[in-house]
Structures are given as structure tokens and as C-alpha cells.
Write the C-alpha cells for this entry.
Amino acid sequence: QEKWCHLSAALLGEDSEISQEQLYELLKYAALGKCHNAAQPSWCRIYHQRHLAGVVVVVLHEMSQLHFYRFYLQFRHLRKVFRHRFTLAPSANFPVSLYGEEANLKPQNTPQGLTSTSSECITKISDLQCDPIIRRYGGKKQGLTSYTLTLEEQKENDYPIEGSPGCQGYISTECDQQRTDSSPLFGLDCEMCLTAKGNEVTRVSLVDARGRCLLNELVKPQGTVLNYRTRFSGITKKMLLPVKTRLSDIQTRLKKMLPHDAVLVGHSLNSDLQALEMIHPSVIDTSLLFARNEGRRFKLKFLAKAVLGKEIQCEQKLGHDPTEDARAALELAQFFIEQGPTKVAELNLEMLLTAEKLAEVSQNKAELQPQGCGFQEQLNEPPPLPKPCFLDCLQVTGQKPLLLGRQGLDSSGLCQSNPSTSNKQILQRALEDVPLSKFSIIQFSLGPEYLASHLHAGLYEKVRSKLTDMLTIYAGPFEENFCMKSVKEEFERCGPIQSLTVVTETFQPYVCIQYEVLEAAQLAVESLNGAEVAGSCIKVQRPVTAAMLDCNVLIKELELDVENEGVIYVAGLKKSLTETDLQEEFSQLKDLETLFLPKDLQSGKHRNCCFLKFQKSQSAVDALEAINGWSMKGSELRSRNALAPGHLWRWIWQINHSNGKQGKHIFYEKMEQLSNCEQDLRKKVKKLDHHIKKLYRSLQNNTLCVVLFPGVNSTHGPQPGLGLMGIKDEEGRSAC
């Protein structure tokens, strides 16, 4: 079970609008884990992040929450797969806010007119050919014998070689058997001090291929010690006083311990062998293995952190630990052999080293900054260093981000459109490239012809009109002098009422009731149609319009929405009841996870309904049976399955309370223009949903997938976006 990642998000309620910063927080933690101060997001939690196979963000350019609910039936895959949904605060420049303000993004020409955008620091396949590691070893994986130093390379790098000047009296390990790719690896490291003879060994460590320590011995130098080099070696005069082991003892022990086909691994291993005065024919030197240009070498401490994610040679410790260093060198060689040169080159170690040095400079400047600087001194200070962008942080961990879509970014962060690129082409590239990347952003679009502001305004009016119709019911007929108070009380037991008016155009009076929540209107239709209210047997129905012909289908699909699984709606509550009262009253219900008590967003007062979320769907079914007819503080409760996911509460309330700003002639003109293209738009949306389904099915298990409708600015003001997210499990659905 622990190998599977899980996602938990308590998003039920009207406060589930997520800001760009919070979204950035989630993606950063998902991609980086605890690196670069990435912390668990404040609004959701990822369990077993280290097991995530990757992160894929699908951005539906210039689309909002409005599009999702207008074409709810067409987004069949999205609503059935993703368990977590949230309202997304719209952004003036969504891509830039997603990647981080300092992202330096440049579009590049790719086949078929695709825009493949990434930061300057992203390693491209073509760039890898220039990498010194690829130039030296090629791109394919090879066995360990391909990485051992040749005799010529040993001579060039001052390794002790039999018969060479300066190696007289050196002892051979006598490991002269031919090496194969299955020969055993051993990590070796020594600490030295300066004596009258030169560098002499004071400590020797040897580890086997599993990292187990085989030898960790202090050695008494022969010459008079001039400098113990305690800062680096950790060796002091006091430590060596009782030591009786001499260099010859260590040489003998090493000869006995090493098998005849042993391969020694170390960092600048020539220094260790010179100090040991030993000759060994087969070595892997990690300072040369991780090749750099112009003969430069990476330090072991840097490689351990950048490649293995390990901190060694910490400043808190006195001197280096040779066992730790030997193990680090061994693991670096094993990583290189197992992953191959291409994977190592993709880490872009030069860039990581530059980033580390810049961070050190920045930290040193901060430490040197005097306390209590005057205001004028602050004015003269240069601006602070920019915060690293998201893509830079990814690069520092060696990950290779991918961005595909029609919308590229120039160096100023402005979008550049490439209309000739189709969603099908983007999908095809994504199917090929996403498996090669740990972090991918894929942008799809409906096309510029469907993004005009007048079409969006028409779309808004249609959604608002349909929602209003779904929230509205007509009830009657009543007697001429019926009691309005009795009618209101009866219908209010189904949920909060926005307005109640008497219809006078009919022979007998009817009432028109507009509710604040979809569940209330549906509950009224289901429980009061055919009932006796205010002395009359009445019929309860929704308005009959062309837009409402598929209302029953929509209601059924909303009930089946994965986000509504295990969620029920309860009405008939007394407004005097607090959330604490309700928690106490409902505490006897099995597996109750969350209680959400909606509030009027203007007055802040609680409404007479609530939503209950259960850990198991069956517990929700059992609760429905128990609650219907349940009396609480003298009030009879009514309940049904939830219809509107929690994040919709605020949005429905806003639409419910909005007054159309446009004149009727403008409204009808826009509606007519929208009607002319809406059939095509439905087909486009359905195809888009199919593309996302195909991409999602191609993802590895344990991949976090986030689908974003970024939100747009329209004549009605900023329209909120929508996010759907989940971690793909082995059944192809999103794990909670």
C-alpha cells in the first residue's frame, strides 16, 4: 500500500477558491518533494510524494469554470475520473503565474508548427551531444568495464603504475584477473597528514558494493607530523598516540581483502593509492567519470548532493569521514553505471553548480548585511535577488520540464499564438514526450474563433439562465385566498429560498420559488409534487424551456459525479443551530468525515441546510435513510444525494445574485451569435475531453494529473477558473 501515492483535499465548502500561489505551492511540492524548501501545500496533502512517477498539468487555454458547467455532459471523462475539484482564482497572465514570475521562457520552433516552450536551463536532446560526458562515453548505457581508466589515462592522472619512476617500493594488490561487467566494486578513501616525508596515510576506509564497511583503521605515519590537517582529516595528535598500525599492515590487509578481479572506486583515487604506496590495475575515478570541460573536476561533496541527494562532509563535523566518502564515491559510480551517460548528462551538473554558487554568494551577502541600516542606506542597496522560478527549481534537481501547446511565451512573458497547431498534433507530441519528462505542462485550446469576448458573454448568459431555471420551481394550483406563510414554510424545509412570488397570469394562483441551491429545488420536486400544501393538492415542476429538456439527464449525471460520491444534502435545519450543534447531532452517523454549513455571502448568516461527506459511499446511503424524517430540535429533516460539488456554492450564489448589465437587444444578439456556433463548440469540447482521456490513460501509475481551466476576463468581470486533480492509480482512476 505504501508504494501508492495518495492525495487528500478538504475542499468541501464555499472557501475552496485556490489562488495561483496555492496552486504553485502544490506543483512545487509534487515535483520537488522536500527539496528547495518545498513544503506540503496548506490546502491539500500528498502522501508518499517520493513515489510519484511524475506531474502532468493540462491547461485548457482561455477556458473557465463557465465552460466546464456549460458543457458538463460533454466533459464526460473529466467529471468521472478526477475526484478533487476546486475553484481557481483567475490570473491576468496565467502561464507566467503558474511557472513563477521570474521564469525566463522562450518558444522554440518544433516539427509541425508546435510550440515547445521551456526555460533556458532545460537540457534538450540536441544540447546533450555537446555535453562532455556524452562526448566521452556516448549516450548508451554500458557495463562498468567501460568506465575503468585505461593505462594511458592512469598515467595522465598520476596513478602509481608498475615500473614508473617514483613508484619504487610500491606494493601491488596482485589483483591481476581480467575484469568483467560483473566484477565486484569496492569504495576506497584515505585521510592524510603532512609529515617530513610528504603526505602520509592516517586513516583508511574500504566499503563493499553494498556500502558495508570492511575496513576503517587509523594508521601511524612513519615521518614526523608537520600538520595533522585536522580540519579536513579529523585526525588529532591525541587520536594517533595509542595507534600501532603501520602502513605495511594496511597494505597486507588490503591485499588479502580484495578479490583478484576487484575494481576500486574513489574520488581522485590517485592521491589515495599514492599515499598507500600501492598499485592497482583497475580503477573508476568519480572525479573523472563525471566529466567536465577543460579538465575541471566536480567536488565529491557537490556530486553527492546533486546526484544522490546526500549531504556529506558537513561543517558541523570535525573533518571528513573516510567511510562516508568511500561510500559516496561508490554510490556515484553505481548510479552512473545503472542510469547511463544520457541520464547523468540530463542532470546538467554545471547549471546546478552555478545555482549553488549563486545561492552561497546571496547567503554570504545576507550574513554580511549590517543590522539596523538607515533608510537612506536601504535606498542605495541594489534590488534583492529574484526568487527562483519554478522551472529553475526543477532544473536544480535535474528534472527536465516539458511544455507543449499553441501558446508559447517570449522572453517578456507574453503569449505567442500559433493557430496552425491542432490539439491532435499537441496530443501526439504529448504521448511521445510526456513519458520522458518528470514534469509536463500541456496546453490545449478551443481555437481563436471560439475565444471572442462576445461569445463568452453569450455563454455566461446561457449558463446563468439555465442555472436560474434549474433553481426555480413552479407549484400550484392553490385556492384563491391561500396562506402564503404556510407555503413558504413548507417549501423552505427543502432549503434556502432566494425569492418567492405569486403567479397571477393563471386561472388559479401558482407560486414561483427560486432556491439558492440545486439540491433544494430537486428535493421540492421529488418530495412535494402531488402533496397537500396549504389545503391544496399541488403539482411541482421546473420551467419548461428548450434549455431544460435535458434537465433530468443533467441531474442524474450530477448525482453520479465522482466529487459527489459519499456526499449528502440535508435541509430543514433551524438557523439557530451552530456548526458545533450539528457536529454533535450527526456524530452518531457512521464514517462522517466533513460537515459544511453554507453561509449567506453578504450577511454571513448560516442557511437552513448543510452537506455531509462520508468516508464510504454506503455510509452515505445509510445516513440518507436515517435522516429522512429525522426530527432535530423540533424540525423535520429532509435529505438527498448532493448535486453541486462544494466549490460551486460560491459561484452559484454569485450568479444567483447577479443582475444582467447588458441591454436586451445586446443580449439577444450575443445569444444568437453563440447559438450559431454552439453545436460546433460541443463537438470541439467532446473531442477535447477525448484527447485528455487518451493522454491520461497513457500516464504511468502514480502520476499526479492536474487539469486547469484558468479563468478569463469578460464583460461580466473576471470569471473564475476550475481545477481538477488526482493521482492515477492502477485502475486508471484518480486515487484519493
